[in-house]
Amino acid sequence: MFLPPSRRIRAACALAAASATVLALSGPALADAAGLATGPAAAPVPAAGPAAPVIASAQLSVAVAEDFPRVLSYTDRADGARLLGSTAPVTRVVLNGTPYAVQAKGAPVLTASSAAYTLAFPELPGVEIDASLRVEGRTTTFRVTAVRDTDAFRVGTLDIPGHDLVSVGSADGGAATAFTRLDPDSTRTADVFAQVTDATAAEANPVGASYAIVSTGRLAAAVESNSSYDKPAGASARDGARFWHQARKSDTETRVGVWSGQWTYRGAGAPQPESGDGLPWAKVVVTPDANADGATDWQDGAIAFRTIGIKAPGSEQTPDRVVAHIPFNFASQATHPFLRTLDDVKRISLATDGLGQFALLKGYGSEGHDSAHPDYGGNYNKRAGGLADLNTLLKEGRKWGAGFGVHVNATESYPEAKNFSETLVDKTKPGWNWLNQSYYIDQRRDINSGDLARRFQQLRDETDPNLSALYIDVYYTHGWIADKTMQAVQAQGWNVATEWSEKFERASLWSHWANDLDYGGATNKGLNSQIVRFIRNGEKDVWNNHPVLGQTALVDFEGWTGETDWNDFTANIWQRNLPAKYLQQQKITRWNGNDLTFTGGVRGTVEHGSRTFYENGRKVLDGDAYLLPWAADRKGGKLYHYNKAGGTSSWAVPAGARSYSVYKLTDNGRVKTATVRPVGGKVTLDAVAGQPYVLYPDRAPAQRAAKWGQGTPVKDPGFNDAGLGAWARAGTVARDTDAQGRNSAKLSGAATASVRQRITGLTPGARYTASALVEVEAGKARPTTLSVGGKAVTVERSALDDRVAASDWNGTRFQRAKVTFTAPADGSVPLRIEAAGGSTATVRVDDVRIVANAPATKDGAVAYEDFEAVDQGWGPFLKGDSGGTTDPRTHIAQLHAPYTQAGWNGKAIDDVIGGAESLKSHDENSGLVYRTAPWTVPMKDGHSYRVEYDYQSSHAGAYEWVTGYDRTSGTGPAVETRRTPIGQQRTTGHFAETVTAGCGDTWTGLRKRGDAPDGADFVLDSFTVTDLGPAAERAACGTLAVTAPETLEPGRANEVRATFTNDEAAAITGARATLTLPEGWSAEPAAPVALDPVAAGGATTVAWRITPPVDAAYRPYTLGAEVAYDLGGAARKLTAATTVRTLPPPPTADSWASDLDWTSATNGWGPVERDLSNGETGTGDGSPLRIGGVTYAKGLGSHAPAKVRYYLGGRCTSLTAEVGVDDVQTSRGTVRFSVLADGTEKVKSPVLKATDAAWSLTADVTGASYVELVADDGGDGNGNDHADWGNARFHCAP
């Protein structure tokens, strides 16, 4: 090998210096920051031979090759123990997926601790790579320092197969390996531990790993790399091949080598290649017995790994983040405005004596959660208080120990987002579909263009630094795109949390699905690796439960997933989180089953079946009771005491304190209960079951004043102060804390009761909306009036359940009443909430708000809403029973033309039909979507009202406008007196009808039909109610409902029923029912039908046989019914209507099932898809049908339990299909398929798993009128059960 004289001399000198260093240096092995154990005095280590240059540190001598930057061996300088590295030359390097011959361009340039190489590629003139090996302490680093390429060949990706960074063999005493992948399946482990012996089988192909540790009886080694796959697939998905390992046989031994996975130097489409720290590197750390347990194994390598591993920014704060919670805003409801969240942060801090909080704001932008992604900045939730209130929350929350994150989405975008464009998204790829249909972002373009970083930078620039974390939702990607996303956000100072535990694993601090124990299934929870948890237990909260380590958990009280129980929330802190966080304060050093040793003198174990902790020999946790020290130095700090069962217990305490003050913790802070003095080094404590306490040496510091309502015009708007000190009170008034720990003001007793305070600091002449949540005791009446600034609104009865899942009060009858007023010249007004005397009904009040806004008014209107200035909620409308207590699919839509309007990408109707905002219901759940209440739209008994609005409706037969009343008795459900079908209206139309108020508290609203077509939208604006004066005809008190089959067969009689319920005070006789049919249809009987007498509260049903014409077109039709009767000399009538469809025509030739219209379909998740697999909740958002690696262009994508019903009219003989679990579920999901013909089962598959190939299905359907395609879960629940009917085809005669 030829070297220029200068380089040759320099290399020779360096080699001599390195060899001299190896011979001269001796002494103990130096312990590193992770606690690597020191060893005995070093013996002289022989210098490597002339063919093996040596580089060295005080701890290691490293023999390196001349032909390629590869380590040949690592020798511990303390005792001569050795590990091998590469045992075979590297002759080819893979560039851009193609292997090329490689050779060193000259000998390496050596210094005492490094070797530098230049690599050339004979087949690629002008392409060169500079690389180096360097040893520092116990770490040896391989690093690419420069890449020179050409216009003809640009280097993109780099792989070096077989480039063993370290290896162990059967000839090495005690050789063992420990490998793992990132796997969130809590029912198994991804860890693979193995001894390397002569019996170890050779592996034909390399195996991927996310973490790799090898060991012998004397040394252990761990590896780390900035490996990043440009386009990961197969084994490299889920970061599953950061490293490759392979067992190889030779004549003398079996050896397992470990090398780095792919590096990306220039990602596809990247404007610039990597540079600096972004260039490829890999590290190996070698250690002897690091935990001083007398053995060397994988745990020693795991300890050493902490010195080289990529560590998530912010992980040092993880042990102190004890309390995670999610203030949730959704669908314009603003149930948790930012300054209310500030009060919740204070309440948590007071109740825990200042434990650290991680508050994840879901819904900080636009109209709340899942709205206007990815407008990270510049589009804040104005109904929650906007940017100003958000920053107040962030700044003040820091003082109470809270750090904040926001929920963002870098995967999907919604058309209302200001940043939405056809450049940002692929409009052919729909994503999540709840409030709106989203579309998948072109993530590569987004990162390469700098747009992603720009959007996040806007958020960073506009918000206080205490907004420190980004919760990046629904992020599916791994590899270079994900890594560059992390680089972009971390460069701006963001910490990261994720939905799933294996995403952004080297950056994420918290995983939602791992912590939310009721969210997702057991196969997608925390990381299941003991290896990873050993290394990183205290760095992040992404784990499954363990008998000693436990786990942190998310139990919320702010409406996320409908959870509202403060008591459950706080119990979770004391029972799960605090013990887990106590252990996170220290690092694991030894893990032997259920016996773990930590730094700091801490040990965790299981004794007599109970979890037990010791600190420096003192027992600090015993099962469900503990006295845990909680101070940074663990000396002389406070101690938390908790005893789930309650009672007396004794605990050893640290020496030094003469006495401890004992305080019970309440949501108003510490309350002293006792002083205890150590006796024999122990204190004896008496605890109430489930009551947390804190102990301070001597006494506690002064407690911060809460200042409830800080930043708002109202002091203590949530009645959190136990003494209600901010409110003047009259009558019987007290703070009420219910069984779930929710606070409110309770007004009771028969006399007038009220709370009041003077509001100051308002802007003179400005308009404001004042509101409060009010609940009058169910079944009773008590006028309760909110008055402010000369305006008032009264709630007399509470008949409507709160069904907004995001509301703290869901499941009760709290509803918001509001009034708009103008601030006087002095900016000061009295605010009063008064329950009238004369009733003993209890009234509860909560969440008093005053916000600046100026909603439009309309002369002569009882109510008018254009949705341009709604303070929170849906203007005059309250959520009904649609979907039950859930997150609704209705919100105030924002204009972003053309993307939110009809015509773009096939949109059927506009999202906004007037001004900049309209009320949109998107593919809503069936049931009452929303309705008015007497305090939002007052209607007097005996008066007529014109109800009108502008609207668009995407489909006929989807929605109905409803009129009804709540009984003044307060008993029974609401009564619906009229349902008016709303037809398809794809340009803006005008709806108007007259409502006669009576029979109770009259209301009006929108209902979604149970048989509505998928994807049906309804948009409303300019809602107006006008009082027309006394009605000419009294309201009929009762209901009329028309029921019919979902589909009617032309030419055959089909039964239709009308049921009349009498809600009058007297019996009704002589009533007659009339049916209105489409032209050409017939009914039997044809004439009006006389009804039997109907008692008060009774009901009767009349039936007709309806026959559509044989040639009736396949489309929706309206059937109307009327019941007329006289009562008290006055004529009254009820009308009702329903929409039916005729059957689709039967097939007349062989037909794909996906090309036929079905008569009905039910599905376990979202809609059944045609020619796509089951996706999310929208139509057309699935991926291609794929079972066992085979793609099907035709078929159905469903999710168990599912049933799809077809009308065949006896014309078909068989159904064939290839069925199975879609490949989108790589390892989870079990489904059983069956086919029913006219109700008789014709075929049933075995239970098919995600890993199974498609099962060929044939069903005999000869002569059947109806056939049902059924997919059931495999008996283990329906999680992940994506059921495909590939190539489903009916074989039919003409």
Automatic annotation (TrEMBL):
Molecular-function GO term, any one: endo-alpha-N-acetylgalactosaminidase activity
Region spans: Disordered: 1164-1183
All copies of domain Glycosyl hydrolase family 98 putative carbohydrate-binding module, residue ranges: 1147-1292
Alphabetically ordered keywords of this record: Signal
SUPFAM superfamilies: Galactose-binding domain-like
Signal sequence region: 1-31
Matching Pfam families: Gal_mutarotas_3, GalBD_like, GH101_dom-5, Glyco_hyd_101C, Glyco_hydro_101, NPCBM, NPCBM_assoc
CDD domains, sorted: GH_101_like
UniProt-recorded name of the protein: Glycosyl hydrolase family 98 putative carbohydrate-binding module domain-containing protein
Species the sequence originates in: Streptomyces gardneri
